[in-house]
Structures are given as C-alpha cells and as structure tokens.
Amino acid sequence: MSDISMIRVLLVDDHEMVRIGLAAVLNTEDGIEVVGEAGNGLEGLRLAREYSPDVVLMDLVMDGMDGIETTRRLTEEMPEVRVIVLTSFLDDEKMYPVIEAGAFSYLLKTSRANEIADAIRAAARGQSVLESQVASKMMNRFRRPQQAVAQPHEDLTDREMEVLKLIALGKSNQEIADDLFIGIKTVKYHLTNLFSKLGVEDRTQAAIYAHRNGLAD
C-alpha cells in the first residue's frame, strides 16, 4: 500500500459506461484518484503491474479471465493491493470463491457512490467491508447449527426398545417373554443391555426413563 495521501484506484469492468460513471464519481471524492480502467481481467493485470494501484474495483463476470481468477492472480502477485469486488451477483458460486481468492471487500453495484468511496478508504486502512446482504449470507453459511444431544435410548436395538416399553407398562419378565415369544433368559439379556445403555440400575428406573421420554405406549 502506498504512503501518499491519494488512494490510487484501478477499475476493472467490462462495461465501459460503468467504468466512466465510477471514474467520474470517484475522481470527485477527496483522497481518491482513478489511475486506470480495464475492460477485462488480463488488461486489469497488465494495468495493475503498470500503475501499482492501492485498490482495485473488480467486476466478476467478464469475457476471457473472470474476476475470480483475476483476483487470485492479482493477490498472489501483488498482495499489498486491496481488491474490492463490485458486482451485480450475490450467488454462492461467485461470492465465496472470489473471497477465498483474496478479495478484500464485496459490494453490490446497487451500492451508493459514497458507500463505494467509503469502502475504498476503509480498504486503504486495511479494513474490509461487506455489503449487508453479503455479510448476512456469510453468517448463515458459517454459523454452526446447534448439534442435537443424543439420547441414551437412541442406542437401543428394536428388540430392546420393545422390552423397555413393556417394562413401562409394568410387565413382568415372564409376561414380556410371552408377549415377544422369547425365553426368560433372552429377556434378562435384553434387560442387562438396556439398563447399561440407559444408565439405570433396575426396571423401575427404566420405566421412569421411558415415561419421561415419551417411550411408553
């Protein structure tokens, strides 16, 4: 980043009228000077090497080299240059890749002239600016959803769950065996397993657990 008072800006956009409008507005802003205009990514790289701008306003969709690849190559070659994306696109396929490529800020072309100028000044100070819609999308993407706490009964097998429900109904081991057409030893085997998985000591605690968790029929 240069130490001179003027912030040197390079415009990279394939629409000439956009470049003309931006240059006209930005050149009236205190401390900002548009030093060059490029109509595509390759020309933008060439002019960046020639003029060494402090900030590059980068469009995303351009013929030949798009804004994502141009940003990647520019930030690798000239890491001191701040790239501000100025685009009409808010879709994930473009936004996240260009930020990962090294874009410093991300603005939409619906931004007001003073907002663009403020973002340029912020970039010169080393501060990133994200348009509110962009910031919201990024927060939604990276916000971690709360993880549901696993319940002990989720580890029960289908048969163990059947035994638990019958315990909750007050059934004895023999009645459980008769209802499920299994032997007493098998019932006891399932009881031992489900007691361990639920962290309870006896059938009374197991029955209470079943009722508290809505598992009793």
Automatic annotation (TrEMBL):
<protein>
    <submittedName>
        <fullName>Transcriptional regulatory protein LiaR</fullName>
    </submittedName>
</protein>
<dbReference type="GO" id="GO:0006355">
    <property type="term" value="P:regulation of DNA-templated transcription"/>
</dbReference>
<keyword id="KW-0597">Phosphoprotein</keyword>
<feature type="domain" description="Response regulatory">
    <location>
        <begin position="8"/>
        <end position="124"/>
    </location>
</feature>
<dbReference type="InterPro" id="IPR039420">
    <property type="entry name" value="WalR-like"/>
</dbReference>
<dbReference type="GO" id="GO:0000160">
    <property type="term" value="P:phosphorelay signal transduction system"/>
</dbReference>
<dbReference type="InterPro" id="IPR058245">
    <property type="entry name" value="NreC/VraR/RcsB-like_REC"/>
</dbReference>
<dbReference type="Pfam" id="PF00072">
    <property type="entry name" value="Response_reg"/>
</dbReference>
<dbReference type="InterPro" id="IPR016032">
    <property type="entry name" value="Sig_transdc_resp-reg_C-effctor"/>
</dbReference>
<dbReference type="InterPro" id="IPR011006">
    <property type="entry name" value="CheY-like_superfamily"/>
</dbReference>
<keyword id="KW-0238">DNA-binding</keyword>
<dbReference type="InterPro" id="IPR000792">
    <property type="entry name" value="Tscrpt_reg_LuxR_C"/>
</dbReference>
<dbReference type="InterPro" id="IPR001789">
    <property type="entry name" value="Sig_transdc_resp-reg_receiver"/>
</dbReference>
<dbReference type="GO" id="GO:0003677">
    <property type="term" value="F:DNA binding"/>
</dbReference>
<keyword id="KW-0805">Transcription regulation</keyword>
<feature type="modified residue" description="4-aspartylphosphate">
    <location>
        <position position="59"/>
    </location>
</feature>
<feature type="domain" description="HTH luxR-type">
    <location>
        <begin position="149"/>
        <end position="214"/>
    </location>
</feature>
<keyword id="KW-0804">Transcription</keyword>
<dbReference type="Pfam" id="PF00196">
    <property type="entry name" value="GerE"/>
</dbReference>
